[in-house]
Structures are given as structure tokens and as C-alpha cells.
Amino acid sequence: MSEKYLISQEIGSFRKPTYLSSVFHKIQGTEEFNVLAGRATIETIDLFKKAGLDNIGVGGEMFRWEMYEHQANRINGITFYGPVRSFDNRYYKKGSITDRIERKEPYHLDELEFLLENNISNIKIPVTGPYTMMDWSFNEHYRDRYETAMEFAKLLNEDMRELKREWDRKYPGKKLEIQIDEPATTTHPDEMNIVVDSINKSVDGIDNVEFSMHVCYSIDYRLLYDVMDDIKIDGFNLEFANRDTLERGTDDSSRPGYTDLKYFNEHNDKKKFMGLGVTDVHIDYIEPVELIKDRINYALKILPPELIRLNPDCGLRTRTREIGYEKLKNMDIARQEILKEIR
Amino acid sequence: MKINTLVYGIYPKTNELRLSISRWEKGLLPDAALNDRIDDEKHEFYDRLNNNEILYTDPLFNWYDIFRPLVLITDGMQPGPLTRYKETNTFYRMPEVSEIGGIKYSPDKFTPLNENPPLPLYAEYGKDFNAFLPSPYTFFKMSRVEMAYNDFEKQLLNNYVQILKKFRTRNVILFDSLPYEKNSVLNLEDFVKEYNVRLITAGNIYKENIRGRPKSIICDNNENNVKIASEISDEPGIKLIDGYNTKLEKPEDIRNEALKYDLDSIIITHTEYFDFLPRMIADKKIEIMSKIGD
């Protein structure tokens, strides 16, 4: 049985060490920032390796504060007027498009350069997708949402081409993995055409890259599965554990969070892979190995092992580093035991 | 034509107030101190709106969402999972309603709450004050309810009467965030006999949707809506200020749009409560609104 079955991976963010988070905004853009973000990246990668992950993402996104803001800050034409409520007393910065948008600096090149300098190659670079960038921005400039998303797609295409060029310098011929984060996908069910067209424009003409798409907390993944054949990507990394029970078992009633996999499988004509969220990032409860195994075994009744990858539901920055590690560790133990059982 | 303007619902907070609430959440600011801070900011808001001759509700700085404090003070209700508010990136706790019992805490008195800043619901009292309350239709649709709609509506409106009595006002803005279906019925027959109801609707409205004659029906801007609103209420209103976008409207454009209708008077308001905008933009939109009315 190939070790390429049930590949385990990080999904994106991980809690920053206090020495970085406490000064992040004060020192961003300075040499001190690069030193501390680099140190935090290496420490986090070590933690991921210890937990047994096959793919370490970019080491927990230590160079980024937040997925929307990170990119929006690097785009001309976006103005920030102030924070907007997310929930309760939590707020996020939502930019306004006040002029034609263009990249003023690369989004993630510094992060990639750091990883390459340190000879780290089992990576997957998360980038925020064009539909989410559009949906999370106010638009004062473009005609409509379609046009806005396509403009963001154009910028992302430029950025990913740069990432690929940098990668090829170090690892010519080796496939680069990029994960397009699109949490806003399916929030407007009648706009799936915008999702499809804008992602396709983002990846247009970029070869020898494995593209995946991360979506979480969707109201209905079936909206995505209905159009997945039209999206020019290789697979998905989705949240499932959050909508599942904590009960043991591999039948439908024990695993309500994963039953949509049947619909995915029925529509998966192009055999795209599914990154299965097997641990919930919004609870401190550390899912036992046996529960994670039940989730994986349920999925294995529907999909072949070569199409299943394993990941947390979403970025683990919502949890402490200790709890995040324990969740990843149990995910790896469950994976190893199942691989043995399959053999 | 007489043009009135209305600002309703949760208004975005200042950075200072957000920081105060953050300190309160961490246990660093006592309930009473936070209450004083909120009260001060509410009164600054009242003064500003009064000076601009804009109708307004309480800015609800102490409401985490448009249901939360009502849920927390009502027997039989509890806050449920975080849920996306319509198609926005803002979340509310979906009310879970097994039954609608009585009101547990006096809504007009300072009272600490779990999972929400302290009561009172509103900082203002009296005959000129407009209370803000979610309409039973929207409340039901955006909750998980184990009751038939008719029972829910009747008992919720009974509780609303109790709340309004405490604040000694007869003026209430009922807010419907979701559009009616053709066969939806919001039965306000008894309620409008006692209260001056301004009902904010969404989407297309049908005459049969509303029973009872509210003082005002405020609707999305289209001719058919305005025609119905003018027939079944005393003063129609339209939503012309964009509550979802930072782009600033021109007062003369808004005024000209209102003047297209052949009416004695009209209310101009915003498409959504301003909590989805940065505070600075909401303040600018108020300035614009102050230049629209007579």
C-alpha cells in the first residue's frame, strides 16, 4: 500500500507564538519581523513534523495576520475605513474598492523565499481566492460582482505565476501545491458561475501546479459539487468534523457530517481528491484516535484511499498551539493505524 | 412632499466603545462601568440625530445581534449556534425557542447578562421615543422554533407589549429582514390598535402579507411596493441609502428619487441597519440623510 494514500496535511493557519503575535503589527515590514516570523515558521514546521504531517503548508502562516487583510493590504485601489463586526464584539477589516485594483507588492513571495532558503519542499501555499476577496470587500468602483471577482482573479494569477517562477528556480520540474481559500463560496447560491469563472481565470496558464480549493462552514457543499467538474483544480480540502457528531460508529447516523461525500462521489467524474476535515478547529476537545478512525473509515466506504487526504477542518489558529498539536497528532495516529489495517 | 428620514437598528460602535466591551469581556471592566459607557455613547447618538431632525431608534450598542438580548430575557428561549446573517460575513446566534414564556428581567433596568452586555434594552424613554424590535416573521424565520408560527407571533407580540409598556412609548419600529412569500401573513391587527408601528420590510410586498394598518410601511424601492405601502399604511417609506456599501449617496439624487412618487409624505431610510458598515461611513451617511429631509 502506497504511503501516498491518505496524505495528511495542514490547512493553513496555526496559532502564533506570543513573541510574534504580541508585536506583529508594530514590527511588520521590519527586519525584526522577518526574523521572528521566520523563527515561528521553523518552530511550527518542527511541530508539524513531530505530529507526523506529510505536508506542512507554509508552516502555519506566521508571516500573515489574516487571510483577507494580508492580500488587501498589498493591493492598490483598496481603502480601509474601519472595522466591521464579525460577531459579538469581534471585528474584521473590510476594505472598500475605491479605484482600479492592482498589486503593489507580491502577496506571499517572502514566505516562499524563506521556505526555499531553508530547503523545505513538502509545502502547500494557501492563497485567498478571488471570489472571497470580492465578497469580503465593499465595491465602489466596479460595475458588478462578476467584474470585481474577475479583477481579483487577474491579480491572483499574476501572483501565483511569480510563486511558480520562484519555485521552479529551486525545484525545476517538481510540482508546486497551491491551495485557493474560498470560504465565501456558496454563501450566494446564485453566484456559483462567478466562483467557477474567477477561479479558472486565476489558474489560467499556470502549469505543473496542483491546485486545491479550501471551503469551510458552507451552507450547502452540494452547490460546489454541482459545478466541480467545471473548476480547473485537482481537489478540495473541506470542513466536515464541525458538522459531525462525537459519537463512535461508521454508519450514516453516526457520521452525519460526512454523508454529503456520497453526493460528491456521484458527481466526481474527473476524480478530484477530497481533503477530509477530521478534527474540529472550534472546540478544545481533542478528538480521540478511534473517533477520527471512524470518520476516515466512513469516508473509505465511499471513496478510494487515493482520493482521500486528511486535514483539520480549517486553520488551527483558533486553538492553542498545544491543543492544535494534539489534534494533529491524533489525526496522524489514526491515519497510520488505518494504513496498517488496509495493508 | 414632506420627506422624513429614519435611522434604525444596530449602529456601529466607536473604537473606544469596542475596546471597553473587549475589556468587559475579559473581566477588566465591571458591568456597571460598561453600562455607563454605553449610556454615554447612546446619548451622544441621540443628540446628533435630534440635531439633524432624523427619526431614530436606540442605536443598540449593547445588543450583540438583533435577537440576543430579547432571547436572554425571555423564558423558553436560548441563544443557539453562530449563524451567518443573510449573505453577509457577520454572524448572529440563532435563537432556539421551545416556547415563549414570560420576561425574566425587567428590560428597562440595569441588569448584567451572560453572553451580552447589560440591560437596559434602550437608554431612552417616553412618548417620542421609537423602540426597535425584530418583527415576529423575521424572528421566527431566523430561529429554530418548536412552535407553530401563529402561536409564536401572538406570544412574542404579547411580550413586546410588556417591553414597550416599561419604556412608556407607543412608537415602535418593527424590522423584517427577510422578504415575505406571497402567502406569508404578519398579523398586527391587535398590535397596531395600541402602537404606532413603522414596519420595515424587505423584497416585494403583497397586500395580503400584512394584517392591520401600520402607521408606516417602509419597503424596497419599486413602484408596486410604494403603491401597496401607500394603500395599507398612512405614510409609506423607501430604503434608498445603501447599508451594505461604503459608497456615499448624493442627497439630491436621493431626494429626486423620492420626489418621483406622488405622495404627501414619505420616509427615507437605509437598506439594512448600519452595523455592516465602518462607523466612519455610517456617520457620513447620517450627514447625507440630514440633507435630504425638509
Mind sketching the topology for me?
The complex is a heterodimer of chains A (343) and B (294).
Chain A: E1 7-8, H1 18-21, H2 24-27, H3 31-51, H4 67-72, E2 75-87, E3 90-103, H5 109-117, E4 125-128, H6 130-135, E5 138-139, H7 145-170, E6 176-181, H8 192-203, E7 209-215, H9 222-227, E8 235-238, H10 260-267, E9 273-279, H11 289-300, E10 308-312, H12 321-342
Parallel strand pairs in A: 1-10, 3-5, 4-6, 6-7, 7-8, 8-9, 9-10
Antiparallel strand pairs in A: 2-3
Helix pairs in contact in A: 3-12, 5-7, 7-8, 11-12
Chain B: E1 2-7, H1 15-25, H2 31-51, E2 55-56, H3 68-72, E3 77-84, E4 91-97, E5 111-113, E6 116-119, E7 130-134, H4 136-141, E8 144-145, H5 149-166, E9 171-175, E10 186-187, H6 191-194, E11 196-200, E12 210-211, E13 216-220, H7 223-232, E14 237-241, H8 251-259, E15 265-270, H9 279-290
Parallel strand pairs in B: 1-2, 1-15, 4-8, 7-9, 9-11, 10-12, 11-13, 13-14, 14-15
Antiparallel strand pairs in B: 3-4, 5-6
Protein name (chain A): Methionine synthase
Pfam family, one (chain A): Meth_synt_2
Cofactor (chain A): Zn(2+)
